[in-house]
Amino acid sequence: MMEALQYFAIAWTDPKLLLLVAAGTMSGIYVGAIPGLSVTMAVSILISFTFSWDVNEALCLMVGIYMGGVYGGSRTAILLNIPGAPSAIATALDGYPLALKGEAGQAIGLSTTMSAIGGFLGILVLAVAAPVVSEFALTFQPRDYMLLAILGILLVGSLSGESLAKGVWAGAFGMLIGTVGLDPLTAEERFTFGVTELWNGISFIAVMIGLFGVSEALVQLHHIGKEAVKQKVGKIAPSWAMIRKYLPLSLQTSGIGVIIGALPGTGGDIAALLAYDHAKRVTRDPEVPFGEGAKEGLVAPETANNAAVGGAFIPMLTLGIPGDAVTAIIIGALYIHGLNPGPMLMIDRPHMFWFMVGNLMLANILMLVFGLTGIKVFTKIVECPRAILIPLILLLSVVGAYAVNNAITDVYWMLGFGLLGYFMKTYGYQVGPVILGVILARLIDENWRRAIISEGESLSAFFVNMVSSPLSLVLLAVVLLILVNQSPLWPVIRRRVLGGETT
After folding, report:
1. Cα separation, 17 vs 324, whole angstroms
2. HSE (CB half, 13 Å, CA atoms) of 113?
3. In angstroms, rounded to a whole number, what is the distance separating the alpha carbons of residues 442 and 420?
């Protein structure tokens, strides 16, 4: 135990390693806050700079950027309604309305604190129960990933406002956009209409920035003469009473984040959306409705996406299987430095496990410190006159869309989806379900194909194995229950069959 603590505290006691974690965390916060500059991109670039470094130094910098970047996406989501990362899409739903009410400082303070709590709980699970959670994650078959993604699509009921039909339409449209390009298994063209530029599909980052950023700038043109809302930034850090109030919800959504983060190929974006839906279902009497500045809608996704960081490290360190794109890159960095992630790493070099846990914990603490500083300066962005703010949003949007692939085509897509988002908002359609459909379309598509192939391309065998697997059966039951619950016939069923009261 003493040896584990010794390796845990290496980065805490070595000034050089401490500085690298701090630099990585601060850089990650600002990389995550800029739309289009993803954490995955930053960590992948770091590999070429750090391959000649000592492995401890390289890992300290990468872990810091990862932890800071996951949190950083919430800042522009709250201030400008432009999620810096897909995991901050759900944060924007209630964070931006809070900024419009003059509570941007309090919203950022609450999201920072809850992100730190979620990160701490995720790391705690990594340290205590890594082998158990890894074994559970390995039980997921392709059909289970498909059901999980379908479950995510059904969250349009939580993101679609008052009209479920509009939300379903938007989610289905997003899935259509997500399937544009070459078929992932057969390489056949789908919805490309002979245009070679569409072979690689449409960048979901361009879609996200257009639907959120450009559309918001166009909407703000209607209010260009209105005076900007003054932000209340007197007290930024949430009180202990507020933390205690939302702690039960943060514990629940942190559990969701750890489990989803430990599933290869999922990540913080799905965890945040599932957590947001969970908060909407379990919160009885929010101070304001969800989507209008409910603090529960801010707490849930922020705790979940940071808890997913610890979850993503669980299969990486114990099995050598990446939990998301960033841990896949870190696995590559470990190989470059002569290490073999997986069970043998835990046996041959167990100190690396505790070194990584210590780095994550240190980065999480530094994220809280850096996250609560400079908020007053950040909130001045919202107080800018709209004549300045709108060009700023458009500039960030263009830079973010271009930076993904260095392609002007993505900028055109962004502008096109910005116009689409403007008209969707004008006619009462939510843009969140479109992004959700784009992100999850490929996950559903690929795992449906894998599931069918693994069952010998037999639909009957597919369904028999689904109902015979306890995990698949539970996921299928949850999907069916959500469908029934969101059906317009549900109040009638409750009244006549179950004897419940309609709501």
Report:
1. 25
2. 17
3. 22
For residues 21 and 441, give the distance between their C-alpha atoms in angstroms, rounded to a whole number: 35
d(CA 323, CA 342): 13
Question: Residue 460 carries which side chain, given as an amino acid letter?
Answer: S
Closest by CA to 160, choosing from 75, 243, 276, is 276
Instruction: Assign 408 to helix, strand or coil.
Output: helix
Distances (CA, A) of 496 to 262, 389, 476, 481, 502: 42, 54, 25, 18, 10
What is the 3-state secondary structure of 229-255?
CCCCCCCCCCCHHHHHHHHHHHHHHHH
Q: Give the separation between CA 448 and CA 463, rounded to whole angstroms.
A: 12
Nearest to 159 by CA among 168, 149, 172: 168
Count of CB atoms within 10 A of residue 224's CB?
11
Per-residue pLDDT of the chain in tens (503 residues, 90 and over written 9): 556 666 677 778 889 999 999 999 998 888 787 765 667 777 877 776 777 788 888 889 999 999 998 898 888 888 878 787 777 888 888 888 988 888 888 888 899 999 999 999 999 988 888 777 767 777 778 888 888 778 777 766 555 555 667 777 888 888 899 888 888 777 788 888 888 878 888 887 788 788 877 887 888 788 776 666 566 666 677 888 889 999 999 999 999 999 888 887 667 778 888 898 889 888 888 888 888 888 999 999 999 999 999 888 888 887 777 777 788 778 878 877 777 777 667 677 778 888 888 999 999 999 999 988 877 776 666 667 777 778 877 887 888 788 767 888 888 998 999 999 899 888 877 777 787 788 778 878 888 888 888 776 677 888 888 888 888 888 888 888 777 766 666 666 666 665 555 44
Angle at 43 between CA 31 and CA 209, to 5 degrees: 40
| Domain regions of the chain by residue span | 2-468, 469-503
Cα 58-356-108 angle, rounded to 5 deg = 90
Name the one residue in this structure whose structure tokens are 């908002």.
425
Which pTM value belongs to this model? 0.74
State how far the alpha carbon of 347 is from the alpha carbons of 11, 264, 344, 350, 351, in Å. Answer: 22, 22, 5, 6, 9
